[in-house]
Amino acid sequence: MWQNLIVIVAVSVAALYVFWSLAPKSVRRWAATRWGGRMAWLARSADSSGCADCAVRNNTRSSR
Amino acid sequence: MGRKGTAWPLYSLVVNENLSQSLRPLSALPLGERSVVEAITDSTVLSRRLLEIGCIEGAAVEVVAVMWPGQDPLAVRIGGSTFALRRQEADLVMVR
Amino acid sequence: MRVALIGLPNCGKTALFNRLTGSRQKVANYPGVTVERKEGVFSDAKGERHQLLDLPGLYSFKPTTLDEAITRDVALGRLSGEPRPELIVLVADATYLSLSLRLALEARRLGLPMILAINRSDIARRRGFQLDLAALSRELGIPVVETVATRPGGADGVVRALEQRAWAVSGALEWQEPTAEDVIIAHREVARLLKAAHHQEPARSAAVAAADRLLLHPIFGMLSLAVILFLVFQAVFSWASLPMDMIDTGVARLGELLATQMPEGALRSLLIDGVIAGLGSVVIFLPQILILFAFILVLEDSGYLPRAAYLLDRLMGSVGLSGRAFIPLLSSFACAIPGIMATRTIPSIRDRIATIMVAPLMTCSARLPVYALLIAAFIPDRDVGIFNLQGLVLFALYFTGIISALLVAYVIKRWQGARDQHLLMLELPDYQWPNPLNLLVGLYDRTRIFLERVGGIILAMVVLLWFLSTYPAPPPGATAPAIEYSFAGQIGKALAVVLEPIGFNWQIAIALVPGLAAREIAVGALGTVYALSGSEEAVTGALATTISAEWSLATALALLAWYVFAPQCLATLAVVKRETGGWRHPLMMATYLFALAYVAAFVTYRLTLILMGA
Question: Do B56 and C426 touch (CB under 8 A)?
Fold first, then answer.
C-alpha cells in the first residue's frame, strides 16, 4: 500500500539524516567526494554538522 | 623601562622628592576618596594592562565599591570608566 | 571595500554594526578557533556595497586574550584565510573618549586608512560632552564623525566619510608591538589632542553611580543578585503556563484530528505516535526556553553581568576560577556552546580549560524540558510562603548544577597544580536600557533555531525511534504492550540491566540514548515510547500525567539527578575538541559527567527509597 511506502521512505530518510548529522567529518567528507558531483549541497554540508551549525548561531551575545 | 620588582618612575620631568613618603597602594585607598596615581610596580601582564586602561602618573582615581570581606575585589574609577580589580592587581598601583 | 570595526569592548561597536548592516549579517567562526566571526554588508548612497567585519573588542594591540589576538591578527592580515581589511573604522565611546583615542593612536600604526567614529554622542552630550570634531580631525589627520548607533540614521556619518574618501593613507608603517613606554607616550598625546580639540569631558552618570551603590554593595549587591536569579526561575514557571496550555491543546487536537481522519495503519501510527507525540512533547517547552533566554539577553544587554562577576569573584577565586569565568558560565545556562566560546576572554589557559570543563554543568536550556516535565509530573503545584514550590525545585536543580561546577573546578584546579596570575580587571560599563529590538531579534533567532532543531534532528530521531519501537511487531497472542517486542524494547531491556540499580526502567533507557544528539530528545522519545505503549494520555499531550502514574518518585528524582550531570550533546563535545585542540578533554569531560550522573542517580534513588520506607 502507498501508506507503507511513505513510511519506509520516511524512516530511511530519517536514518540517513541522523547518520549524516552525527557522523565524523572525515566520513562525511568521503561521502561528499564520492557522490558530491551530483549533489553539490552534500559537499557543502559536509563541512558543518547539523548540530554544531546551530551551535554557532546559538550565541546570545556577540563581540562586546 | 623599569626593572622587575621596582616601582617604575613614570614619564615625568619633575623628580618628586616626596615619592616614598606619601605613597600607598590603591587597595588601601578608602571608599569614596579620590587620589592621583604616582607609580606602578612592574609585574608584566597585570601592570601593562593597568597602564593601558589609564593608570599613568597624574591620573585621577577613586574607589567606588569594595567587596567584603577582605576588600577584594574593588571597583575603581579610572580613565573615565569603572573597573573591577582584584586586590593583588590594585596593590600594583601606588597613589598619593 | 573591506571595512573592519575596531574598538574597546563595550563601546557600542556591535550596535553600530547592526545599524549599518541591518539583518544582512553572517555569523561563523574564524578558521581553527571558536572565536565568532561577524560579517555583514552595507551600501552607501552611491549604491556601492561594502563588506563590514565586526572584530572582537580589545584594549590594546598587545593582546592578553585569544579574541584580542584575533583582532590584531586580522588587522595585520596575519590570519590565514582572512584577507586584510582595507579600511578601519575605529569606534570610540564619547562618554570616555581618552581610552578609545589611545587605542586609535595604536591603530594608526597599522598603516591602514582609518575613520574615527565617536559613538554614544547623544548620551555624552546630554552629560556635558563637547568636542571640536574638525580640530581633532586636523590633528589626527583622519576623518572624525559622530554616531548614535541606537538611532535610525545614526551611522550615516560613517557612510558619508566613506564616500568622501577623505582619509590620508598614513603609509605602510612597519608594524611593531607597542611597548609600555609607547603606551605612556600615547596617553600624554591623547591629553594633548583632547585639549587642542577643546574637549569637555561628560559628567559621570548619577544614575549609574546610584545604582552601583546598591548593586556593588557587598551585602545588598549579593541580595540583589539572588533576588534577580530567583525572579528568573519563578518567571520561567509561572509566566509560561498559559502558552504551554495552548500548545498542549493544539497538539492534542491535531492528534485527534488525524486519528479520526486517517485509516488505521503504519502511516497513522508514525504520524500520531511518532511525530505528534514525540515532537509535541518537546515543542511544548518553547515558552519556558524563550522566557529564560529573554532574561539572559536582558541581563547581558543591560551591563549588569560584569557586576555579578565582581560580586562572585571571591567565590570563584576560592575554587580557582577567575571572576571572568562567570559570564561564560552564565551563557552556558542558555547553551554550553556559546559559553565555551565565550571563554576566549579568559587570559590564563588553565583557567580557560577549567571553565570549559565545568561549563556543561551549567544547566543548558535543553535540560529544561526534562526538568520541567519531571517537576510538572511529580512536584505539586503549591505555594510555600511566597514561593511557588515548582519554581523552588527548579532553582534547586540549577543551584546544584552550579555547586557541582564549583566543586569540579576545585578538583580540576588542585589537579592542575601550578598557580597562574589571575586577571580580573573587568570593565563595569554604564548601565543601558536593553534594546527591545535586540531582544525581539534574539528571541526570534532562538525560536527559529529551536524549531529547526525540532524539525531536523529531533524529528529524524523520533521517526527512527518510532520505527525501532514498532517493529518487529508482536507475535500473535502476545499479552504485553506491543512495544516490548520491538527492537527498541529489546535494546531498552538490555540497557535496563545496567540502569536498574539507579531506578531507571527500560523506557527511560531507550529515551536516554538519542539524548546524546540533543538532550531534549529524551522528552520526545519518552513521548513516543509511551504513546506506543498504548497510553492515551501520551498522545493527547499529557506525558506528565502518564509518567506520574507509572513511575515512582524515587525514579523521577533519580532521573533528575542524572540529568543534572548528564553528558552533553555531541555538538558540545565537538566544540570542546575544537577549542582544546584534541580529543583528550572532550573524552575526559564525557567520562566524568557520565560517572557523576550515574553516581548521583544511584544515591538519589536509594536514598529516596530509604526515606520513603519502601
Answer: no
